[in-house]
Every structure is written in C-alpha cells, then in structure tokens.
Design goal:
heterotrimer, A alpha+beta, B alpha/beta, C alpha+beta, A: alpha+beta, Glutaredoxin, 5-stranded mixed sheet, elongated, B: Rossmann fold
C-alpha cells in the first residue's frame, strides 16, 4: 500500500514510532486495514501480535471501517450528569445500532467518547468533528434527520 | 532571529511592547468552548468589519486561549478599557466595532450581570467569577495569541530561562524549586524539587524530561487550556527543568483528543527553535536541548507515569512495578523526570518572582495556585485558578455561582475517577493536598464536578466504575476484575436487585482493590465507591431497602407521570414520544401509559410547564 | 548486601533479589500464579502480595529487596486480600483444580460474585512463554480492561505458531479441570477436605496436547460458549 509506505517513511521504521504510524494510517483510512498492519509489522520488524495488541488497546484505533458520518457522544462526567446516557439510548433507538457499530447502509457510525474536555458544553455530541453543545434528545433527532436528507457531496470528477 | 543574550531578549521585549501598548486590542476567545459556540465566526466578522471601518491598522485583533468563563461564550474582551463582553454572536460584531471601538459606547446587553445586585458590570475583574481568582499560570490565557511567540516575549516570556541559563547553576535552580514548595499538579502532589534532585543525582549520561499532557480525567480540561492558550510557558518550564536535571531531550505527551493543543504546540516548538530557545547552546550557554511531541492514542491509564513511558516507547500502555522509579529508570531505561502540564507552567513564574513570593501563596504544605475545571450542575462552568487553601464553598458558591435555582448543590466530585465525592457538609474544607486526601478524595489534576439533588450518588459511583473497568489496562487482577465486579454490584443496586450483603461485599472488594492493585489507577479506583458509601450511605440503602432512587435518576426505580394540575394540554409531548405512550387531547391533561413507557425522558425534556414529574 | 526483615527474621541478600526470592530463601511459602522462574516476572495476579512496614501491599515477585525493609508474608491484611483475590479468580475460572486447591488452602468457602467461566485468568504466562522461551510471539493480549483476552492476531491461526504446546504446558488453570459438583457456591466441596481435590486418577494425566478431549477430563467442566464466537462477545458486552 503506497500510502502506508509514505507514512512509514515520514517517521522512520522504528519501534518507538509505531503508534504515530498507526495514528496516521487511522486518519488516512478512518480505520486500520489488515494489510496495513501486516505491512507495518514487516517494515518495522515487530511481531504482528504486538501491533495487534496496540491496535486493540488504544481508543483511537478501529479495526473496522467507519460510516460516512461519525457520531460521537461524549460520556465525560459532566456530560453523564447532564444526560449523556439518554442521548446514547436515543441514538440506539434512532439508528437501530449499538454503540461502536455502523448502520447497515454505511451512513452513520456511532461511538462514545470519554470526555473531550469541553465540559462547559455538556451534554456534548460530536458529529464529523463538529461540536454540538448542550444537546437534547429532540435536537439530536432533528440533526440526524437533516443529515439523512442531505445528499452525500457530489463526487469531483475530472 | 536567534536570541543569544538576556539583553537581546529585553531589547526585543521593549520593541514589541512599544509597538502594541498604545493600541486598543480586541481579544476573541479561541478556547474550545467558545469555538464550539462560534467564536471563529466572530473573529472572521471582526476582521472584515475592522477593515471596512478602516480600523484594521489602529486596532489589534487577537484570537487567544481560553478566558475561562466557558458557560457564557463566545467571550470578547477589549483592551485597554478591559470591557468584557459575553455571549457575543457574529451579528453583534458590527455593534461592537461601530459603537464601542469607534465611539467608545459600551453595549449594555453584552455585559455580564452581577447575580446579587442585578447590575451590569463592565470589567472582567468586577465579575464574581473572576474576582476571587488568582490567575498565575493562566495570567496570559485570554490575553496573548498562543500562535505567536512574540506575544509571549512581549509579556516577559523566556526571561526566566535567560536568567537561569546565564546566572544560575543547575543545583541553584533545583534549590529554588525546592524552596518554593511546588508540588506535582497531576494528582499525587510529589514535591517537584525533590523529583528533580533525584533525577539529577541518578547515574547516567542521557536523561529525559517529559510533560504529561495525557489529561484523561473526564470532566477536566485545565491542561488542555494551558497548552492551547499559553504553550510557551510549558516549554519554557521544561527547558529550565532539563537544564536543572541535565537532560538533553524532552517529550511532550498530549492526547490526540486535543487536536488544537497538538497544533498549537507544533507551532510553538517551531517558533522556539527559530528564536534559539531550543537547540544548540541556548542563550549562548553550553546547554543544548530539544523536544518533540508524542500524541497519545487514547488511554486513561497512560497518565500513570510508568504506563506513559511504555506508550512513549511505542508499546501498549501497561504500568509496571515501582521501584525502580522513572527518575532512576525511565524512558528506554534512562533517568526521566515526568511532570504534568500545570507543574511545568509554574516553573517560569517561580524563577521570575522568586520562591519566597510563590511560597507565600497557599497553605503550609500546599503552595501556589491550582487550576480547576469547574463543571457539572453549577451556574458558571469554566476554568478557574485559585490560591491553594481557598475553601470548596468559596470556589463553588462564590466563583461558581452555586446551582441554578431551584436546584440545590449536594456534593462535589474532585480528582476524577481517582478522586471522591465530598458532601456539602465538608464544603468548608480548604483546598490543599492533605485535606482532600484525608476526606477520601484527592486533588487529582483538578477536575471539579458539582452535583445537585438530581444527581444519584450510586449512579455516579457506577459511572466511574464503568469508566474504570474499561480504562483499566487489564494487567492486574484486582483492577481488571475488581472494577468489573464493583460495576456489576453497583448496577444491581441501581436496578433495585441488590441486598444488604451485596453492599458489604462491595465495601470488602473496594478495600482489596485499593490495597493490592499494581498501579495508581487501580489503587485509587475504589475511591468513588468508598467516598459515596462513606458520605451518602443512605442513598445506597434507599435503593436496596426501599427500591427507590431518591434523586430520581436510576431508570429501573423511577416512573414518569404527568401532573394533571400543571399540564396545560398543549400536546407538545405527544409526537416526540418514541413509544406513543402519551395520550391526551388539546387542553386536557395528558396521561402516560406506564406499560409502554421506556423512561427515555423526552417528555420531561420538552415540557415547558414542568408538568412531567419523576416519581 | 542488603539487609531486610521478613516476618521479623533478619536476612542479608544480594541487591537485585526480589522479595519472592527472599521469602523462598527462608523457606516461607506464599502462593503465586503468574510467576514462573523461567520467565520474566509480571506482577499481574497479585496473589504473592506481602505487607511492607509502611502498610503497603506489594507483589513479592516484582519488588526488589531494599535496605531495612520490613516484610510480613502472612499478616491479617495480606491473608484477607489473598482470599478476596482467590474468590475473584474462582468466579471467572471455577473449573480449575489449582484455584480450587488454593481456595481450600485459604479457607475460601464461597464465591459471592456471579460466575462467568472464562477458563482463563489472564495471568499471561502463556504469552511470556511464547515470546521469551519459544521466541514465537504468536499470541498476546488484545483489548484492555474487562474486555482483555489472549489470542492470535485477528483471531486467526497464527503463521508463526509452531504448535509447540508451551502455552498449554505453562497454563495454571487448564492443566486439570476440577470435577466438583456444580454447586451454587462454585467452591468444589471436596476441596474443603485435606484430601486431593480430584480423584487421584487425574493426578498424572498430563495430556496437554494430542490426547486432549479423548479421555474427557478437560471437557467435562461447566459448559460455556467458545470465547471467540460472536455469541460470546455479545454476551460479555451486555453484562
């Protein structure tokens, strides 16, 4: 994989850089493809199992592809007190999938996150990296409906 | 340009001050809270409108770090008058430019209101939220542009480093830090000077200094705000520390969840290199030092220092037995000093103003100030810095403004998942390391979560166990299985399935997890359980004996009902109900069908008349 | 030489010795599970905790001897902690003879947690065996916290595994399955007597590899779904 090759080049094929390398692969592909892990293991010369342990240990890595829109509900303490859990339940009802899963149509991935440090905005939902402060169940369903209606951006063709 | 001498630095500082001091300055808050509320748009609008009004040259515009009062963002302050506007929207910008900047007229509706007198107050210092604070580490947050090193220099930045490198020996620096009484701001409160001395004395030619920016406590964002608002203060502190212990390499470990902090730091490091504060022969001395950023990949346990070392080395973040301590065997086996963000940021201040001055702040054993993120069920959520020794009551009620009525504050959770819940009766406790630890909580890194009478303490304990059983690395049995079993027991209590003997078992287990876990995460993990049991036992007993949740939180033990007297029959709750469980006609009281109700609480949320009650 | 005191007995030992070695040097027995002299110490099961003079409980297998250290190997706090740890272990691995024996030795007479037969205590001996002695690095820990388990990359048969059986050999819980009654207490009744837990016929069984399953010893324990099946994962997450 050319992209993986380039990422490894950027840091150097050293053990101490594997987490950074995986982070960049995650950013590029939105998940860690198996071939990418195999390639990193071979290039950095570390046992595949060590890489697999790292990939499953840290929060920011995902071994399965993500949906078009990534919805993250913050479950920090402040968000929990102000009803974050209810938002999770509302999303489970709305999307028909559990936390950590993707809708069958590939449109939404739904995750929870333990505090993004924006506690004054609790309860907080992040959709595609954008902050939605002081969220309510009702508002959330409306945002979802809007996202569903919006067509995916047209492909740029040459 | 490279700064080689202290004189050069002072000359540059004078130059920068001269260029900016006479100009009015608009400071738009660029903290995460304000950004989420649209401060970037506010900034953009200012840029265009200042241009339009022909004021672009005459007025400085800056996008600063967090001002602190996140609750009321976006925040804009105007220098030199010190006018403080809150809740500024892009559409308000025209008025600010045309009225305030051009004609000096203050816009009343954007000013803060004193909660007691109801009067509008103009200046930041007049707002109760700021009045009682002592902003030392945060002194330039909200003032300077964190992406421009010249801003930091203009306010005296890197002067402390210059003094250290040109006039002090490493031992003298350590002595100053020891005399100041500075203790680690990351949790346990280990004396910083002592740590440095141990590392300096440790054999080894290669040593490291690390900044622990893995702020994983849910409900805490102090370090984030310092890194985003004033990164150079941390960098300067680290260079001074490196000189003191004899390290040539530094590492800043920051969570990837803080992308803005990472970006700001990258810019800051590049600029510090440009000015010669990092690199070879800093300030013309024989001391050379550089540092790099390592992004954390998301693990609460990485805040534990041996786990952080593993993460830096490119491994799974698993703690190991101490001793050997990192000051003897740290990264790749070399002596390593690990301090947290706020600790490092305190260092330049101590050098600049002297250890005696610093030690005059605070209490006998806890010196200086501490930053807290004040969040939860409190009126003024945000970032505060107070002198150690202030009471919890002053912090929560005077600065935080108490709970928005009609709710009443019941407890405060300090120190994140490792800390504890303290009841209102202990609010006269002074905030210092010893008092908090004695009460069963801990200083932690400074997350302070206020809880009101609608917070169930059993649910809070369960929340933290859920967090910890997932964030535990899983290496040692008591932490992995113990937190999981405590979670199970707490869930049973929340669902009204538990017995008195479960409560005993919970206490017994909590004690063993505390005593036998391998690292600090596990050893402090039972604190939320133990403190809630100690101070709020009656709530546990209500769940067990009466199958009742006094705060009305635990779903299995509550019902939603409509108060027929309050219900106006507006139909607003009918359509949002996902279960169609509410029946009713216009202007007739509605009724919830308990058979169908899933207790999602939407009706409670949408009702304008508080007619939906939890029983 | 470092001088320390173990249960009040003065002992001089070389620097770099661990407390476990020191304790064994005096002929005092303390239980261990995740420790093996041929592998690096890991400090995960915490069964070997001892009490230090300052009141801390530390794992003897990883703690280095220090000048003047006061160590108590069987203080009331240590014993109480060990009992709770054994109870936790039994609750996830009731079918292990080794654990049942430990329970009997430590007077653990009941398991108060809901039982979840994991057939693994995550002591990591197999992982270290595979990496340190067999140099294979075929298996390791995945996930973290309560979701942690031991497996091969992607849960697929490993290319680097040589089927040496080292992992099975070293496992402290899969060597002999306890055949005790499936009492609600999970603690096997026979372990409460000084007699061997299981009938002597199983003593020399040692069928770690090829013959496994043929005699039926190792599969007669409580039935649970396979750890790797999707069913199992779902069940765990819903807990």
């Amino acid at each position: 994989m050319r992209e993986v090759e380039a990422i490894i080049e950027r840091y150097g094929a050293k053990r101490r850089h594997v987490i950074a390398i995986l982070q960049d692969i995650q950013t590029q592909f939105h998940y860690l493809p198996r071939e990418a892990l195999l390639e990193v293991a071979a290039r950095v010369r570390i046992p595949l199992i060590d890489l697999y342990s790292i990939a499953t240990f840290y929060n920011c890595f995902s071994l399965v592809p993500r949906g078009e829109h990534v919805i993250r509900v913050c479950l920090g303490t402040a968000c929990h007190l102000k009803g974050g859990t209810r938002l999770v339940e509302a999303l489970e009802r709305e999307l028909g999938v559990r936390e950590g899963e993707m809708t069958p149509d590939g449109q939404f991935s739904f995750e929870t996150v333990r505090c993004v440090g924006a506690c004054a905005l609790a309860p907080l939902v992040l959709i595609d990296g954008r902050y939605y402060p002081k969220m309510k169940q009702r508002k959330l369903t409306q945002v979802l409906a809007r996202l569903r209606r919006a067509r995916p951006p047209a492909e740029v063709t040459q | 340009m490279k700064i080689r001498t202290l004189e050069q630095l002072k000359a540059l500082q004078g130059e920068l001050r001269a260029a900016r001091d006479h100009k009015p300055c608009v400071r738009v808050c660029g903290g995460t809270g304000c950004r989420a509320r649209g401060s970037e748009e506010v900034l953009a609008r200012f840029t265009t409108l200042l241009q339009e009004a022909g004021l672009a040259e005459a007025v400085d515009l800056r996008f600063t770090g967090c001002h602190g009062l996140c609750e009321r963002g976006p925040l804009v302050s105007l220098a030199p008058e010190g006018i403080f506007y809150q809740g500024v929207e892009a559409d308000d910008v025209r008025a600010i430019v045309m009225e305030t900047l051009a004609r000096g007229v203050v816009i009343e509706r954007l000013l803060a209101q004193d909660p007691v007198t109801g009067k509008r107050v103009r200046r930041e210092q007049e707002i109760p939220f700021y009045r009682r604070q002592h902003r030392l580490v945060l002194r330039f947050n909200g003032v300077i542009d964190p992406t421009d090193i010249r801003e930091y220099i203009a306010f005296g930045g890197y002067h402390a480093l210059g003094m250290v490198l040109t006039r002090l020996t490493p031992d003298e620096v350590i002595e100053i830090i020891e005399r100041s009484g500075l203790r680690g701001r990351g949790g346990a409160g280990f004396p910083t000077g002592k740590k440095w001395r141990l590392a300096r004395a440790a054999p080894g030619s290669r040593k490291y200094v690390i900044c622990n920016g893995d702020e994983g406590d849910p409900g805490a964002f102090m370090d984030r705000s310092v890194l985003e608002g004033n990164p150079h203060s941390v960098i300067e502190g680290m260079i001074i520390g490196a000189y003191a212990v004899g390290a040539a390499q530094g590492i800043i470990y920051v969570r990837e969840e803080y992308p803005l902090a990472v970006r700001t730091l990258e810019i800051a490091l590049a600029q510090a290199r440009d000015y010669g504060f990092l690199g070879e022969e800093i300030f013309g001395s024989a001391f050379s030092f550089d540092m790099e950023i390592v992004r954390g990949a998301g693990a609460f346990v990485a805040g534990e220092e041996t786990a952080l070392i593993a993460a830096v080395e490119g491994k799974v973040s698993e703690p190991r037995q101490r001793p050997p301590y990192p000051v003897h065997r740290g990264v790749w086996g070399h002596p390593t000093v690990i301090n947290n963000v706020e600790t490092w940021a305190n260092v330049p201040v101590i050098i600049e103003r002297g250890p005696e001055w610093f030690a005059s702040l605070g209490t006998a054993t806890s010196k200086g100030t501490k930053i807290f993120s004040l969040v939860g069920k409190v009126a003024n959520t945000g970032l505060v810095e107070i002198p150690m020794g202030m009471t919890l009551r002053e912090l929560i009620e005077e600065i935080g403004g108490g709970a928005p009525p009609p709710r009443e504050i019941k407890a405060v959770q300090i120190g994140g998942p490792s800390g504890g819940c303290l009841p209102k009766t202990l609010f006269d406790l002074p905030i210092d390391y010893e008092s908090l630890t004695e009460a069963g909580a801990m200083m932690g890194s400074g997350g302070l979560i206020v809880m009101d009478d609608r917070t169930c303490m059993v649910d809070v304990a369960r929340y933290f166990m859920d967090f910890l059983r997932d964030e535990s690395c899983g290496k040692c049995l008591p932490c992995r299985e113990g937190t999981n079993r405590m979670y199970e027991l707490l869930t049973a209590i929340c669902e009204g399935r538990a017995t008195e003997s479960d409560l005993e078992l919970l206490e017994e287990l909590a004690q063993v997890v505390r005593e036998t876990s391998l690292c600090g995460l596990g050893q402090t993990a039972p604190n939320p359980v133990l403190t809630t049991l100690r101070y709020f036992r009656s709530e546990y007993e209500a769940h067990i004996r009466e199958r009742r949740c006094p705060a009305g939180v635990c779903k299995a033990l509550i019902r939603y009902v409509i108060n027929a007297e309050r219900c106006t029959g507006c139909l607003a709750c009918l359509s949002p109900c996902p279960q169609q469980a509410i029946r009713g006609q216009l202007k007739q009281p509605h009724v919830i069908d308990q058979e169908r109700c899933i207790k999602c609480g939407i009706c409670h949320e949408v009702c304008q008349f508080e007619a939906v009650e939890i029983v | 030489m470092t001088r320390l005191y173990i249960n009040g007995i003065e002992v001089d030992l070389e620097e770099g010795t661990t407390l476990l070695e020191a304790v064994e040097h005096l002929g005092i027995e303390i239980p261990t599970l995740c420790f093996h002299p041929g592998l690096s110490a890991y400090g995960a099961c915490r069964l070997c905790v001892v009490e230090l003079g300052d009141g801390r409980l530390v794992s003897a297998c990883t703690y280095p001897v220090q000048e003047g250290l006061q160590v108590r190997t069987h203080s009331p706090r240590v014993l109480r902690a060990r009992r709770m740890l054994i109870e936790l272990l039994l609750s996830i691995c009731p079918g292990s003879k080794r654990l049942q024996d430990l329970a009997a030795e430590h007077q653990v007479e009941r398991v108060r947690f809901s039982v979840r037969d994991e057939r693994c205590i995550l002591c990591g001996l197999c992982v270290r065996m595979c990496a340190e002695q067999m140099m294979a690095h075929a298996i390791g820990f995945v996930n973290r916290g309560y979701r942690r388990r031991i497996t091969t990359p992607f849960d697929l048969t490993s290319d680097v595994c040589r089927r040496c059986g080292g992992c099975l050999y070293i496992c402290p819980v899969c060597e002999l399955r306890c055949q005790g009654p499936e009492a609600p207490s999970v603690v096997c009744g026979s372990c409460m007597t000084p007699a061997p837990t299981c009938p002597p016929v199983y003593e020399d069984l040692a069928c770690y590899m090829g013959a496994a399953g043929e005699c039926g010893t190792c599969v007669r324990g409580p039935r649970t779904p396979d750890r790797r099946s999707p069913d199992f994962t779902r069940r765990r997450e819903s807990v």
